[in-house]
Amino acid sequence: NSRGAPSLLKDTVPIPEFSASGPFEGHDLLRRGFTSVKNELLPSHPLELTEKNFQLNQDKTNFATLRNIQGLHAPLKLQMEFRAVKQVQRLPFLHSSNIALDTLRGNDECISFEDILNDPSQSEVMGEPHMMMEYKLGLL
């Protein structure tokens, strides 16, 4: 298999957009909003990038603190555990809560936005299980 292991870890199936494609395609205001070159170049708010990368920045800070306190082995061991836990997933058509990753990060006792408003039963991304598995395995 020339695609390698990362292609086996995909959890989503791309959904084609139902719009006209080609030189006469119009801009869809309902889905994409108004066009602006400034919005494409810069974030709409100064805190947007910080909020988008919050977990990454928090992990970097925690790893730096661990390295200063316990040495190089502690953040390396924790990163290895993060990678191992991220690879374990449920079937692509089932919701995965990643409780092991939350436990490693210490977020298992916190109630956040995703815990309340990320109910899998209300998800709009439910597809055909056979097609999603074939796509994940590279058969489709």
Automatic annotation (TrEMBL):
The keyword Chaperone applies. Keywords: Chaperone, Proteasome. It comes from the Eukaryota. InterPro entries: Ump1 (IPR008012). GO terms for cellular component: cytoplasm; nucleus; proteasome complex. Pfam families: UMP1. GO terms for biological process: proteasome assembly. PANTHER family: PROTEASOME MATURATION PROTEIN (PTHR12828:SF3), PROTEASOME MATURATION PROTEIN UMP1 (PTHR12828). Belongs to the POMP/UMP1 family. This is Proteasome maturation protein. It comes from Opisthocomus hoazin.
